[in-house]
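1st attempt posting a full record on here, be nice pls
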Amino acid sequence: MRKTNSFRVKRVFACLLVLGCVLGLSLNGLAYTPVTLKNHLAKPGKFPGQYELKEFEKITGVHLKFKENPRIKELYAKVPGHPHDLPSVDKRLPEEPLVVVPVEEVGKYGGILRGVSHATEAGTSDLLSIRHVNLVRLDPNKKTIKPFVAKGWKWNKDYTEITFYLRKGHKWSDGKPFTAYDIEFWYNDLILNKKVYPKTPTIWTVAGQPLKVKAINDTTVKFILPKPKPNFLLYLATTYAQPFQPKHYLSRFLPKYNPKADAEAKKLGYKDWYDRLSKYYRSSDWKDVPTPLLNGAGHTIVPTLESYLVVEDTAKGRKLVPNPYFFCVDTAGNQLPYIDGIQESYVPDKEVRNLMITNGQVDYKAQALFLTDYPLYKENEKKGHYRVVLALSPGDLVFYAFNTTHKDPKKRKLFNNVKFREAMSLAMNRKEVNELIYLGQGKPTQIAGVNCDVVDFAKKWANYKIAYDPAKAKKILDSLGLKDVNGDGFRELPDGSKLTIYLTYSNQGAPVKMHQLVKSYWEAVGIKTVLKEVTSDEYRALANKNELDLTTWKNDKGSPVAVASAPAVCLLPIFGDYFNPGTGFEWATYLQTNGQQGIKPPQDVFTLQKLVKKFASYPMGSKEYDQIGAQIAAIHARNLWKIGMVGKVPVPVIFSARLRNVPPVTISDYSYYWAYSLNPIQWYFK
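the predicted structure (as C-alpha cells):
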C-alpha cells in the first residue's frame, strides 16, 4: 500500500506543482485570475460580471430584445402541478432582469448536465448549488458580494437593519408574482411558527434572539436584527437556506389563511394541517429533501425562483428542466440558463461513481471527491472527455469529536475528560495520514473551533497536541485508570468494565481509509475501536439523537466564511448543525431551554456564549473581530472538542470538456456553496 501510494505521489507531483500558482488562501480571500472575456464590454457595471438592465442599456446604448430557449415550452410541459400555457419571454421576465456577462462568450441552448450523488440527501449539494438562488451571491473572486434575487440592499449605520430591494415584476416558476410579502410569509408564518419550528433555527437568530422581517411594499423588505451582525450579508451569499417561500401556494395549508385547512387535510388522509404542509415544506430549511413527487403528496412541486425545476424524482435520481420565469438574461438578451436540464443519478457505491466519471458519464462533480483518486481522474481525462482541476477546500479538514453528553454515564465521564481527548489526539499519526490519504499535499493541523490552517487569528494553535506521540498517549491513558485488566491487549474502564469506541461514519464525510488508520492508531495505544459505515442519512439521524460515541466529518463550519457568517452555529454546542454536528448535544439543549432540560455545560461554554455574541457584531477581518476570535480559538483549542487531522488539502473537481463559461476554480468547498459563486446559469455545452 505505502509503496503504491509513494509511486502515485511521484506520478502526480508535477501536476500538483500548479497549486503554487493556482491556490493561495488568506483571511482576505483567494488569489483569482479572471478569464479574458471574448464579449467584454468597455465599461464595467457597479458589480463585476453583471449589470442591472437600465445600467447595461445606459452604458452600451443597446436596447435588449429578449429571446428564449427554443425548447422551453416543450420542456416546461413536463413540470408537474404548473400551468403549461407560457406567455412570451418578455412577459415572463421581470421588468428589471439581471444581465449576466458570460465568462467566455454568449452561449448556446441545449444539452443535459449529468451529475451523480450518493442518494436523495447525500452528496448532492454540489448539484443543488447549480440551480441555487438567494438574495445575494459571491463573485467568482470569492471577495465581492453581488445582488442576485435582490437588486440591491442598504444597511443602517450600526448593522442592525438591512433593507433589500427586489425586482419589479419578478415571478415564481408558476408565473405568480414574487414579492416582499413572500419573504415576510417565509419568516413570520413558517420560521416563527412553533408548530413548524418548535425552536427558531439558530441561523435566523442574533445573540440568541430571533430577528424580525417586515415587508414595506411589494419590492422592499427589511430585516431587523436584535444586535449588530455585519456579516449577515455574507451568510446569505453562501448559505443553502433561502429566505423566501411562495405565500400564494403554501398559505392554503395554514389555518391562519385558510380556516378549513385542518378539515381539508384530514379529508385527504393527513393527520392535520401540519402533516399536509410537511409534504410540501420541510422544516429543516434544506432544499435537498424528497419533493412531493416522492413523499406521497401527488404529482406536483412547490414553485421556486431557482434556475431549474424538478420534473421527476425517484429512488434512482431526479430530472430537472429550466425555469421559464428565471430572472436573468445574457448580454445578447437570451434568457438563462442555457442548458436544457439536469439529470442526477443516485449511486451509493464510490467505485461505481468513479467509473461513471472516468467513462465520461458525469459533466460536473465536486462534492465527496478525494485527492487519493486524483491520479485515477487525471489518467482518464482524455478517455472520459473531461478535465479535472485541483482547488483548495478550506472546509476539508476532517475532525473527530467525542460525545461529551453521551447517554452512557461511564463514557460521558471519560469523554468529558480533556486528558482523554488529548491522548486520543497524540495517538494519531497525521504525517502518515497526509502521505497515504492526501499524497503528502496537505498539512497536519488542529481545529480550534475554526480551521487553524486558514483563519489568521487561530493559526497559533495549528500544531496544538498534534505531534505523534503514542508513548505519551499511553501514559495519559494509564493515569486515567484505563488498564488492560484481562490481557487481551485492550484497556478497560477504571471499574474493570469493557471499553469499546464505536466509530460510525459515512463515506461522504471523509476518506474511509482515514477511519481505518485512526482505528489502528487508537488500538495501538489500547483503545478497542469498531468501525461501522452507514449512509449519510443514517449517520445524521444517529448523531442528532445523541446515539454515537463520536462524530466525524469535514469541518466545513470552520472555514473563514462559515465562521464569520454563522458564528453561533460554528462556535457553540453542537459546534455545527444537523447536517454536520460536532458534540455537546445535551449542552445545546440546556442553553436553548435556559437550564430546564439537558446537561449543564462547563464554564468555558458559558464564556463562549458571551464572546460569540460580541464576535458576531464586528465585520470580518476587523481588529475587534480578530481579537475576540483569538480568545474563542484559545478556548476551543484547549478543550479539543473537535480534534483536527490534515488541512490545506487540495481537492479534485470534474468538468466535462464540452462545458464552457466556467471561470477559474480556485476554491471548491461546501462553505462557499460549491458552484454557486461560479454563476452556473451561464454554463453551456460547446
